[in-house]
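Reproducibility note. Readers wishing to regenerate the assembly model reported in the main text can use the exact inputs given here. Chain order matters: entities are listed in the order in which they were concatenated for prediction.
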Amino acid sequence: MLKLHEEKELTAHLAIRPAKIPEKVSIPLIQHLGKICQPVVKVGDEVKAGTLIATLEEKVVFAPIHSSISGKVSAIDDLPHPLLGRAKAVVITSDGLNRKEEFKPNSQEVIKQLTPHDIRKIIFDSGVVGMGGASFPAHIKLSPPKHLDSVILNGAECEPYLTADNRLMIEKAREIILGIGLVVKCTGARNVYIAIEDNKPEAISGFEKLLPDSEYKLKVLRSEYPQGGEKQLIKSVLGREVPPGKLPFDVGAIVHNVATVYAMYEAVYSGKPLYERAVTVAGDCLENPGNLLVRIGTSVKDLMDECGPLRKEPQRIVFGGPMMGIAQYSLNTPIIKSSNGVIFLSKKEIAPSEESFCIRCGRCVESCPMGLMPCLIALAVEKEKWGLAKAYGALECMECGACSYVCPQRRSIVQAIKYAKLKIAK
Amino acid sequence: MPDRLYVSVSPHIHSGESVPRVMRTVFIALIPSGLAGVFIFGFPALKVMLISILSCLITECLIQKARRQKIAASDGSAALTGLLLAYNLSSNVPFWIPLAGGIFAIAIAKQAFGGLGANIFNPALAARAFLLASWPKHMTEFLRPFSADGITQATPLTVIKEGAVKGLSDLGISYWDLFLGRRGGCLGEVCIIALLLGALYLLWKGYIWYHAPAGFVLTVGGLSWIFAAQGFLKGDFLFSVLAGGLILGAFYMATDYVTTPITKRGQLVFGIGCGIIAFVIRRFGGYPEGVSYSILIMNALTPLIDRYLRPRKYGLSKSK
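Running the prediction on these inputs yields the following structure tokens for the assembly.
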């Protein structure tokens, strides 16, 4: 693992503020790992924030999707999607009234009576997915097929620029702790670890104050990339390694992201479905970066206008962090449930440079969190030796980008490995 | 309002590390030793360095032009090869020795294999081996330190090899002299303190790892102590480390990126291998000094080391 230029000071001190309600949102029908939802509204229908707009009747892996503003469904069409390029989406035009469905909050007493099954049902109905990036439906992760002993709250937030999780931990620590309680109830895990990197002192001291005599253990980790990766975090916190092809519950652990746990809290305690989330909007190009509470479906352009004016021309607009995030081709791309940040990168920040040949310096090998030899995979790919690429570990790669980040010759190692994965799969 | 957005694969930021920066840092680390060389052996040492560097740079430019490649001499790697080659020469060689050495280093040892990153052998050391084989007289005559009159002197290792004396005390010099560089030898290898100063800088900056140098130095020192000519466990550890080109070789040549193993474990093996070979050459071979040959031989074994010493993959238990 390695130390990055973090650039978190741009936004780490800025409290989460509600973004303006956009005039129009485009809500993709797939925002989760699994099957795409079917719309249950049609053009012309009136919806409010929190209205169910898409779901499935089948018993497959998915999470239902809700409207994020009040207004009228104006189109259902193929539109830009931050991860998939394009996907079917419901477009809602705002009526400017910001009406919401009536959410039924649950009292402490009621929640005490809820069975794990009830909790999973509420979380499923609220459309909660893993909000750290993987977007795996949360209710499935709450019904592990094996016994778990440890729950880890992922507050590492190791990607540069991003501070939304950090702000959430500072501002909503109490709620997050209640959310963890739900996870514990559903999984029966005995040990709870709250894992935070040491570059977030405010969040750490907040939890310290709230957890003096709690069962939950605060685990302060040295800031390293990519420690927020599920497998890396399990190693850092528990000293266990998840074998290739296995899942965290195979080693008795489950990892939930801060934002996900907060969304579970909101679903169960406030009865509120997931239709807005905290998003870091940052980058050298913006005059007013910040952490915004954004309605799902808000476009990049709306966020750019809100956090602008632009002081430089952005070269790349990235969803997620700059290490693993995805560069967007359109300003109409909407925020989805797993979008933890939108970064407007200037030419200076990208520092484009030509790729050159490998000098075997070994930096990539040293920085690889999976113990692979990235430089040799890339060389094997150049020679189209797929067997060799596999032997050097192409399939185990998590694409964290550490190798490309440290490479003095600017080799596109991650790109080569992605290509190798496609070729090996064939 | 951006009218053009660039799409590419992540990551979208970079550490800022580059080959010119690496080369510049190594250059800086080598400066103290160069200054010491000029101080000890006088102006001719500077002349050898300049000719060697220019020879390498010009050869690199000409070959890249001939191959219709981008002229990449500004990345500093050719200049660094030139400097390292000069450090492996005596200060009183005729001008055409560094000239020929520079041409051989770049044209044969580096570009003929495909250029930076593709060469198997350390170019500076390959050139040294070439010069030693071709003009041994010029390569084994060393000036006496601080003598303007051109009196030559053998290196301490040569004197001992020839059996004239047994140890340091007979040579009339102290360990302190060896540390400071008051002895005959190649112009960049004699001043140990200057070399260590630069090496510490590189270690601190993270540009080299300690594994290869530590393995190399400790192996040579240890074996020289254990299997000494004077008898079992009667050798002189410190002398064997300080008297030849071991420090220069261990910290600046056995740490070359291109020609040594990729992993830290591999580099440790590389260093130990170098140490064994260098010791065997010194103790039993025909040459008084074996550092450069040991590195060249281990260069050839590098692909093999990389093949067998891979890092442990995450999630695989150590026993597998």
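We highlight two features of this model. The domain at 108-270 of chain A is CATH 3.40.50.11540 (Rossmann fold). Chain A touches chain B through 67 residues (CB under 8 Å).
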